[in-house]
Structures are given as C-alpha cells and as structure tokens.
Predict the structure.
Amino acid sequence: GNSVTQMEGPVTLSEEAFLTINCTYTATGYPSLFWYVQYPGEGLQLLLKATKADDKGSNKGFEATYRKETTSFHLEKGSVQVSDSAVYFCALSLFSGGYNKLIFGAGTRLAVHP
Amino acid sequence: SQTIHQWPATLVQPVGSPLSLECTVEGTSNPNLYWYRQAAGRGLQLLFYSVGIGQISSEVPQNLSASRPQDRQFILSSKKLLLSDSGFYLCAWSVRDRYANYGYTFGSGTRLTVV
C-alpha cells in the first residue's frame, strides 16, 4: 500500500544547528511529495513540494530532494531558528479513487532552543 | 485568491450533545473537500472527503457524519458527542488534479473538547 514513514521526534536542537528530518515513502505509481509545517495551535501550512524525481523543493531556508532510487524526501535546513519550532509532516499525493489522496507521516516535532 | 474558513476556532461541548462544524472555501469552484482529525500529540486521520455536492466518502467508521450542501461548504456533524471525539479538526480543500501536484490547503482548525 501507500505510506509515509518519518523519523520519530521530538528533535531538539540549539539555534543555528543543522536540521535533518528523514522521510521515506512507499507508493504505487508516481506520487508528488510534500512537507507541511504546523505551528502550535494552528492548521497545516505547505512548506515545500516536489512533483517528480530529482526535483528539489525549497522555502524559507528549508529544502528537500525527491529521491526515487531511495524513495526518500528528507527535510534539511542549514541553520535553524527558535521560530522553526513546530511539527513537520511529510506527505505523498496520488490520484486514486477519483480524488487527490494525501497520505501523511506521523509528524516530527522540532524544538529549537536559544 | 482562494481562502478557506473554518469555525468555530474553539469549542467545549458536553458528552451527548450535538456538534456542527462548518468549513467554506472562497475563490474556487468544484473543489475536493476533506475533514481531518488530529488527536492530542498524534498524526492526522482523514475522516471524510467529498468530490462534489452531496457526495461524501468516509474513511473510518465513527460517531461523526459529514455533508456538503453547497459546492464550497462542508459540514462535520454528530448527533451525540463522545469523550473520544475530542481533538483538533481540520478542513482542507484541493483542486481536482489527476497529477496530484498541488496538495491541500488547510483551514486554521477547530479545537473540540468534549467534557
């Protein structure tokens, strides 16, 4: 079946540290891949996306590359800030059953300390 | 531009009481609409999706129901709330895209506490 697996949190970092949140997927067909971010008490916001193999999505200093050979879409940022503290969700999207089905990972909580 | 509105933001309801959460989308036509629930500290669970007026599909059996009386309106309901219905409810919409390139846009959520 189709699924997304992401590293368990929480991930705790000091400000300006390097961030990696691992995400791997299993899918039939050719999914699009997404990272969403959820700040405390808010809904989900699209952070970045990639729609085909070798595409790199980037936004706000975050980036992720669609790796078909390793079925991965790891999220990275070179220097995190306290304001990056949030829950990050990796997701894949497939057209299935007549609609765009978005399948989420369990989420990874990031806590950045000054 | 497209916007999605969800209300209320916060709700405290007694066990056994009814529920109605509303979601509307502006600036687009024929959207796909979705209801998700997020239990405390957990991931996202798809509850319902709709590809058109009156067309509702349920992903999990539960105490809740959904309706889509208008193209851009999606309502989540319950006749009698349970304690286990507590959580953060999110509405979302997407374009109809066979290549699934666009993802979903989420509302700001409703935090429901059943007491």
